[in-house]
Amino acid sequence: MDPAVSNLVDISATPAAMHAKADMVLERARWASQVFQRYDRDKTQSIARAVAEAAHAKAGEYAAWAVRETGFGVAEHKKLKNELSSLPLVDHYDNADFVNTRIDEATGIVEIPKPAGVVFALVPSTNPIATIYFKVLSALMTRNAIVISPHPAAREVSVDAVRMLAEAAENAGAPEATIQVIDEISLPLIDEFMKSPKTDVILATGGTPMVRAAYSSSNPAIGVGPGNAPVLVDETANLKAAAGHIVDSKSFDNSVLCTNESVLIALDKIADGLKRALASAGAHICTSDETGMLRNYLFHDRGFNVEALGRDATWIAEQAGFKVNKRTRILITPIDMIGVGEQLSREKLCPVLGFYSARSMDQALRQSRALLRFAGAGHSAAIHSNDDQAIMDFAAAVEVYRVVVNAPCSQGAAGFATRLAPTFTIGTGFFGRSSVGENIGPNHLVNWTRVAWHKDASRADISAAAMNLKHAGPLPRAPADGVPGQGRPASVAAPQGVSGEAGKDQLREQIRAIIAEELRTVLKGQRDG
Q1: Cα separations (Å) of 520 from 2, 165, 467?
Q2: Euclidean distance between CA atoms 150 and 156, whole angstroms
Q3: Is 89 left (phi over 0), alpha (psi -120 to 50) or beta?
Q4: Cβ atoms within 10 Å of 216's Cβ, excluding its own
Q5: Which of 258, 286, 350, 409 is catalytic?
Q6: Could you read off the pLDDT of 254-269 as tens digits, one per residue?
Q7: Do residues 118 and 147 touch, judged by C-beta distance below 8 A?
Q8: 138, pLDDT greater than 80
Q9: What is the secondary structure of 139-156 as a DSSP string?
Q10: Please, what's the largest Cα pairwise distance for the chain?
């Protein structure tokens, strides 16, 4: 097959070529999504599960590869994240139905699922494979096509992983081009994908500039903001358990998850006891001089020192100018204030945790709020307490959409140590200037058409008709700027529940014919130009 229509997108340098090839990738995805939306739930779930099994089998290999390529994180922990975002993710949504029509018995409203269509997904370097697994499986469970844009720092492992997932999906019966990946990444190219009218929704996980670009693209976007989670420990907490959870969380994958604790706020009366418990759990409590060394090393005029991102505690201490026990898991830096004047109250994607002592619960709540005003609004917070009223007061006060109680925040806010929806894309809602405040999942990639009768009207039972709809897929788009070949009525005709080798081969031939025609159009346009 021509490289221009393979699952690996080779992008040349000129703006015209980038535009043409981005358009081709998205057109392939659009046709794939139209075919996919004719599949029934059993076939859809079987494809998702086959891909999840393939992903789970390669979790360890890709974890080690990601650490080698990016230079940060812990392979053992990345393997666990990769595994959790494969088969357990599909298991979690096994009883959810994003394919069949549903009827609200109380209102009589009929709800028909409408997948987004083409998802353009941005992937960070910190959790590349887990995020790819999560976004691809979310798209498959909702019968969407997806184009993955990896982070340049994790390009090789990401490209290989997406190609593997695409092969597994097609072998299980998914249409060709349901899963694609950008090989050569550049900001102008990403901009082409984000602004294209053929992109139906952008799923953005990455830095603030990239997320803002997604929201300003003119396309629907689901973006996430940075974390900076406060963790409050009060006098009713089990200090040993709290310290264990906090150290486990802050050291997990060397703290590259945006859900990790950033500043620990403890009441004065238990601060010394908590420090002893933290030390017993593997933390090094820094002296004033060591705290100053870390502050100078971690932050400079351009912001956070990315050399420290995802590095282990002993390495960071040595780079900052002091040594710690080789078994040290995290570094605790006592600080006297929170906000603009204290860099150590910023987000730190490394195992360094600020420690602030509060005189009262009121002050602890004020400082938790101040931390989130400084950075991380809408994201996550944690509390260790056995006082239900204190827990509720904290949850009501902090401007976040996830509060983790007596559990590690890294795993808890992401839904792996709590019963929140499992995710690697955290919605930060209105506080974080995001469109969604929930943990993002496949449910955010499908909308529902609601059929409603007059409230006083009586009607016959329509359940049989509602459950036997002919899903025609989305309407073709109108021609854009008079360009031939764009927006032609779909010639792909695949029955709902298509399966088997014959059906699979037929779909492939139809897609190939469509793409061949599109290629002829593009090449003709280049010759004419």
Answers
A1: 12, 29, 40
A2: 9
A3: alpha
A4: 11
A5: 258
A6: 999 999 999 999 999 9
A7: yes
A8: yes
A9: HHHTT-EEEEE--GGGHH
A10: 78
Half-sphere exposure of 136 (CA within 13 A, CB side): 41
CATH topology of domain 229-413: Aldehyde Dehydrogenase; Chain A, domain 2 (3.40.309)
286 is catalytic: no
Segment 361-373 mean pLDDT: 96
Q: What percent of the residues of the chain are helix, what percent strand, and what percent coil, each to the nearest 5?
A: 45, 15, 40
* Structural class in CATH, domain 3-45+96-224+440-450: alpha beta
Q: What is the pTM of this model?
A: 0.86
Q: Which residue has the tokens 């459950």?
A: 467
The domains of the chain are located at 3-45+96-224+440-450, 229-413
Instruction: Read off the amino acid at residue 77.
Output: H
- Strand order of the sheet with strand 381-384? 283-285, 330-334, 352-358, 261-267, 229-233, 381-384, 403-405
Q: For the chain, how many residues are written? A: 529
User: Span 72-97, mean pLDDT?
Assistant: 96
509-525 pLDDT, tens digit per residue, is: 655 555 555 455 544 54
| CA 294 – CA 314 distance, rounded (Å) | 12
Q: What is the pLDDT of residues 424-456, one digit of tens each?
A: 889 898 998 888 999 999 999 999 999 998 887
The model's confidence at residue 139, banded by pLDDT at 50, 70 and 90, is very high
Contact call for residues 123 and 81 (beta carbons, < 8 A): no
Pull the structure tokens for residue 10. 């080779």
**Residue listed under structure tokens 């061949």:** 516
Question: Residue 466 and residue 443: Cα distance in Å, rounded?
Answer: 21
